[in-house]
Structure formats: C-alpha cells, structure tokens
Design brief:
alpha+beta; four-stranded antiparallel β-sheet; three-stranded antiparallel β-sheet; 18% strand
C-alpha cells in the first residue's frame, strides 16, 4: 500500500486528486450524471401519422397485417443489414404459406423459370429483391455514410420509424429558393399529397453521418402492405426483365393496381437483373424522359 492509504474505511478509494470517495458518494455522482443526460433535449420529430384531419401530410396509422409485422422484424433496427437467407426463410415459414402462394399466383407462377414448388419460387423472389438490395431500400430504408436516406417506400416502416423516434415529417417550403437545406432547393422538388400516395420531405437519425439527416422527398402508399408491394414490384420487374440486357440499369413506369385499392403509377428501377427500387407516384400522367408527350413509352411493359 502507498503511504496514507491504510487508514481508509472499507469501500473507499481515492480520486485523481488523492481525496477519498466512498462508494455512496460515487453512486450519487453517477446518478447525477445519469439525470443530467436525461435532462438533455431529445430531437422530437413531427409525426407521419395522427388522427388530426387538419394535418394533410399525416393520415391515420396504416393497417398492419401479421406479415407486415414479420417484415418489420426482418428490417430490424434503423440501419441494420437484412440477410437474404432470413427473407427466404420467412417466406417459407408455414405461417406465410398463403402469402407466398398469393404472390406466386399474382405474378403468373414464375419469375425467371417455371418454379416447380414454393421453395424454388421463394428463392427466385429472393434473387429479385436482394441481389441489388432492393428489399432493404424499399421496405427498411438505407441511412448511410456519404448519403442521406436511400429508399423507404413502405408505410409500415414509416409507422415504426415514428414509434421509435427514428424519423419524422419535415415541411418542404413551396418557395424552393427559401429552403434552408441547399440540396432541397431544386425547383422540381415538390411535396405532393394525393391519398393514398404521400410524397413528403423527412428528417431522420443517421447513425453513420449525423449531419446528413434530411431527405428532400420520399414517397409511400398508405394503403399498400408488404404483400401488395412484393406483388406489384415483382410484376413490374418481370415485365422489364424480359426487355433489358443482363448488365443494364433502367427505370420504367408500372401501372399499379393493388387488389381492392386505388390505382396509381409507380417507378421501378432494374439493375443487372434485380430490382433496385420501387416507389409510388401521385402523377396521373407521370413524366417520361424518353417521350415527354406520351408517358406510355416508359411503361415497364414497353421497355
């Protein structure tokens, strides 16, 4: 023992200045520090959903199916990676047999080849949605380094992001010159709300690059659940995949008609024989870069 330490009471130690600190005092210090952390301001996001009809951007909470809850669990925490094998196992789970069969029937029983059974079809579905990380992009969102937020086009994930305080609505000023965030000052970036499709700006927590936390525009369909999106996205991919090369990246418009729900157009991006993104649009006659006068030229069935 060093000189002067043998007279300390049990449970006592010295701080960096040589003064003794009892365990009780240390616990009090730790408690005060914890309370200080709790008192710091927490970033509060505006909600995506509420019950106030005056907030046009915020409809009521979306209706969730059991399959939606499984998809949200697969997405995991904000920014988590999603494993393709876990998706395939989820689709082959007995509880999702009916879901998989409905998806298979809706796309004509096959994607790349004539699937002989549900197992082969689930594997092909995995190829479509995971070889270019389309599933994470569309369903979970991709906060990351060197970018803001990729994707996020699934109403249930917006609901989960609100519930966990990961993200929230952010008003995009109509006068683009007065927008505080420079990247959002492009004149063509406009909030568009035509239920059930919502194209809005949002703020989010970026665990990889905290200051890069604004996405100027992102869109979702309030009515479409995970099964609806998998059906529509896979059908759009199947149409386009017949017409593009193996190493091609292209975008097309898909006439989206969810069963019993409102018709709208969606944009699908195909990259190297896999789906990269799929998101809804509010336009009745969407913009077609290839032919500004006739949007039908850009349909996935016409590539």
């Amino acid at each position: 023992l060093e000189p002067g330490t043998w007279n300390l009471e049990p449970g006592t130690q010295r701080d960096q200045n040589g003064k003794s600190m009892s365990q009780t005092a240390m616990k009090k210090t730790a408690l005060l520090f914890f309370l200080l952390i709790l008192s710091l301001p927490v970033l509060a996001f505006q909600p995506f959903f509420d019950n106030d009809p005056r907030t046009r951007h915020a409809p009521e909470d979306p209706d969730l199916t059991d399959f939606d809850l499984e998809v949200l669990a697969l997405c995991g925490h904000w920014g988590d990676e999603v494993e393709a094998v876990d998706f395939e196992q989820m689709m082959l789970d007995k509880s999702n047999t009916a879901v998989l069969q409905r998806i298979r029937k809706a796309v004509g029983g096959r994607i790349f080849s004539k699937a002989s059974d549900n197992k082969q079809f689930a594997h092909e579905l995995r190829r479509v949605w995971f070889e270019q990380k389309g599933f994470k992009h569309v369903f979970c969102g991709e906060p990351g380094s060197g970018r803001d937020l990729g994707g996020l086009h699934y109403a249930a994930r917006y609901w989960q992001a609100q519930d966990n305080n990961w993200a929230g609505y952010r008003k995009l000023k109509s006068n683009y010159r007065k927008r505080p965030v420079e990247k959002c000052r492009a004149f063509y970036l406009k909030e568009s709300i035509k239920p059930p499709v919502y194209t809005i700006s949002l703020q989010f927590k970026n665990p990889y690059e905290p200051r890069n936390n604004i996405k100027c525009l992102s869109g979702y369909n309030h009515e479409m659940n995970a099964e609806d999106i998998l059906i529509a996205g896979t059908r759009a991919f199947k149409q386009a995949n017949k017409r593009v090369g193996k190493n091609t990246k292209d975008a097309c418009l898909f006439d989206t008609r969810p069963a019993g729900k409102k018709r709208h157009f969606s944009t699908m991006v195909i990259k190297q024989r896999a789906l990269r993104t799929f998101y809804p649009m509010t336009d009745k006659k969407p913009y077609c870069k290839k032919n500004r006068k006739n949007y039908k030229v850009c349909l996935c069935s016409n590539l």
